[in-house]
């Protein structure tokens, strides 16, 4: 058959057209998948880490929110709510609502949606405990009506057990401020940048009960006045606690050894005044004058021994039992132990001001 009479293939079967179709389809799929990549990866990571393991009660907690820009929070430290509440607020685990900025900050974004607002609410994954302790966070709170930034201590394991909002009186000057609460049995003291704000005792929040930390930015009753989107930026969060039940037993063991040696030598010299019994013979008046002069020098030596027997401050070490009042050294400085505890890695004196005081 002549070449010119060979039937030609249909145009839609030509290789160039097939390749162009495949490339166009791949580009469309990529364009749809990329915007949701972070959300899917973050959700998968959280589901992988949330393996149903039992929650622990920790005496210390800290997070400086270091990580890659646009990534989610550390799933070993935080869990995120994913439900909707009655006032139309949708809590989301998406990085659109809670993400790291790559500069050591957590950014919580409150957004307006077609059917309400969306935001993020973070809980510390492990519960925290301490009959005495201190919680603090460095936060930049947004300004504007209708916004409700919160940093809470929420009772763990007791539904409706109470919550304490440390950020109840935020400073909205577009700068970071340190919000803290310290407690001992019977009450809480709230402060901002080291200045006491108020002291209170809450019936639903007990010192010593396990609690969780919670961070969120939501709307108040005047939500219509809120200018959205709004952002709350968190620089760092930390907690250090101790069991106050061990405090009464520690001072008695520390004080007797120091007081007994000092008081005993001071009472012995008065006993040397009994030799006035030698004053009965008139001729023995001179020896009493020499005896008291010879015995007092012996009494002056004991005061020099207690300082030499006092234990010197030892270098701080982890996995060591420390009692209140004891002194340790760390990086060339001397610190006094404020609370009886057993040290762990990361509990250096410079990191836990609730347990150590520089002297």
From TrEMBL:
<feature type="region of interest" description="Disordered">
    <location>
        <begin position="242"/>
        <end position="312"/>
    </location>
</feature>
<feature type="compositionally biased region" description="Pro residues">
    <location>
        <begin position="249"/>
        <end position="259"/>
    </location>
</feature>
<keyword id="KW-0378">Hydrolase</keyword>
<dbReference type="GO" id="GO:0004553">
    <property type="term" value="F:hydrolase activity, hydrolyzing O-glycosyl compounds"/>
</dbReference>
<feature type="domain" description="GH16">
    <location>
        <begin position="51"/>
        <end position="245"/>
    </location>
</feature>
<dbReference type="InterPro" id="IPR000757">
    <property type="entry name" value="Beta-glucanase-like"/>
</dbReference>
<feature type="compositionally biased region" description="Low complexity">
    <location>
        <begin position="260"/>
        <end position="298"/>
    </location>
</feature>
<dbReference type="InterPro" id="IPR036573">
    <property type="entry name" value="CBM_sf_5/12"/>
</dbReference>
<dbReference type="Pfam" id="PF02839">
    <property type="entry name" value="CBM_5_12"/>
</dbReference>
<dbReference type="InterPro" id="IPR003610">
    <property type="entry name" value="CBM5/12"/>
</dbReference>
<dbReference type="InterPro" id="IPR050546">
    <property type="entry name" value="Glycosyl_Hydrlase_16"/>
</dbReference>
<dbReference type="InterPro" id="IPR013320">
    <property type="entry name" value="ConA-like_dom_sf"/>
</dbReference>
<dbReference type="GO" id="GO:0005576">
    <property type="term" value="C:extracellular region"/>
</dbReference>
<comment type="similarity">
    <text>Belongs to the glycosyl hydrolase 16 family.</text>
</comment>
<feature type="region of interest" description="Disordered">
    <location>
        <begin position="42"/>
        <end position="72"/>
    </location>
</feature>
<protein>
    <recommendedName>
        <fullName>GH16 domain-containing protein</fullName>
    </recommendedName>
</protein>
<feature type="compositionally biased region" description="Basic and acidic residues">
    <location>
        <begin position="42"/>
        <end position="54"/>
    </location>
</feature>
<feature type="compositionally biased region" description="Pro residues">
    <location>
        <begin position="299"/>
        <end position="309"/>
    </location>
</feature>
<dbReference type="GO" id="GO:0005975">
    <property type="term" value="P:carbohydrate metabolic process"/>
</dbReference>
<dbReference type="GO" id="GO:0030246">
    <property type="term" value="F:carbohydrate binding"/>
</dbReference>
């Amino acid at each position: 058959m002549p070449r010119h009479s060979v039937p030609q293939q249909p145009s839609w079967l030509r290789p160039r057209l097939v390749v162009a179709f495949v490339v166009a389809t791949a580009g469309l799929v990529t364009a749809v998948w990329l915007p949701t990549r972070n959300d899917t990866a973050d959700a998968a990571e959280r589901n992988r880490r949330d393996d149903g393991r039992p929650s622990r009660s920790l005496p210390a907690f800290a997070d400086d929110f270091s990580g890659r820009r646009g990534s989610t929070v550390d799933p070993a430290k935080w869990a995120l709510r994913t439900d909707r509440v009655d006032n139309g607020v949708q809590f989301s685990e998406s990085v659109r609502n809670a993400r790291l900025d790559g500069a050591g900050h957590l950014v919580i974004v409150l957004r307006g949606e077609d059917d309400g607002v969306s935001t993020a609410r973070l809980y510390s994954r492990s519960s925290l405990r301490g009959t005495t302790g201190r919680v603090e966070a460095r936060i930049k709170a947004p300004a504007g009506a209708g916004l409700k930034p919160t940093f809470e201590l929420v009772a763990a394991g007791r539904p409706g057990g109470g919550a304490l909002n440390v950020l109840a009186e935020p400073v909205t000057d577009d700068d970071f401020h340190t919000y803290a609460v310290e407690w001992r049995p019977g009450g809480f003291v709230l402060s901002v940048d080291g200045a006491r704000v108020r002291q209170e005792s809450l019936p639903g929040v007990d010192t010593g009960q396990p609690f969780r930390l919670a961070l969120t930015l939501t709307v108040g009753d005047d939500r219509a006045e809120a200018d959205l989107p709004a952002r709350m930026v968190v620089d760092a969060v930390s907690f250090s606690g101790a069991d106050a039940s061990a405090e009464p037993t520690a001072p008695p063991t520390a004080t007797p050894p120091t007081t007994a040696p000092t008081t005993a030598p001071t009472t012995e010299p008065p006993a040397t005044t009994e030799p006035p019994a030698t004053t009965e013979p008139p001729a023995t008046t001179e020896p009493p004058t020499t005896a008291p002069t010879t015995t007092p020098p012996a009494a002056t030596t004991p005061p020099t021994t207690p300082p030499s027997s006092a234990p010197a401050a030892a270098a701080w070490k982890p996995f060591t039992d420390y009692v209140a009042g004891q002194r340790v050294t760390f990086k060339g400085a001397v610190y006094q132990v404020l609370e009886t505890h057993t040290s762990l890695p990361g509990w250096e004196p410079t990191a836990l001001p609730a347990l150590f005081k520089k002297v």
